[in-house]
Amino acid sequence: MAILDVVKLDVASDDFIVQKFNSEKQWELDLGSQLGVTEGQEAIFVKGGVALDIFTPGTHTLVSANIPLISSITNSLFGGTTPFTTEVWFINKTAKRDMQWGTPQRIPVMEATLGFPINVGACGQWGFRIADSRSFVTQVVGAQLVADSQKVYSYFIGEINEKFGQTINSILGSGTPFFSINSQLTAISDIVKKAVEEEFSRFGIELVNFTISSINIPPK
To answer: Which pLDDT tens digit goes with each residue over 9-21?
Structure first.
């Protein structure tokens, strides 16, 4: 088993959200090893499936004082350069603001002013950032080796479309005419954003932006 003196993740693209360091190899760290965390990243130590110590940007010399949670469950960490095994995950903390969303099929909605149902579609943009690395790694990433923005998209796009459907049903059902709806896109975007934020937050994610570009019905 190799002993590493420096742990650092260099990535060619910022599309990654979470990546496990050197995941295909077995290795140990020494007390006194260097951990490099670049701007826009966080590093989290995981042992036995439990997310423990977190490091913010900078170069960190690993000593028992700054890895207290690892130290508390690893009896061999009593000083010196005793090797210990752990997983290190790097989390991208920058915001992803250009995610697209759209209703996969039109939503049947009763339009109160017309007195009959119409089929509504919508599309827009949203963005997110990882706010709580421990919560995100534990609940969303799990045993996977990597997570990218597509992973987050697939995990939450259903929630976005569901909350939009509930919102548009409520607005049109209460008597707002459909043909005035596009003049209220900002207000409706804010309603949907607020409805979705709680679910995102539960998994350690901050919804940084949410907009509806258009709400439409079939031309015919």
So the answer is: 877 666 789 888 8
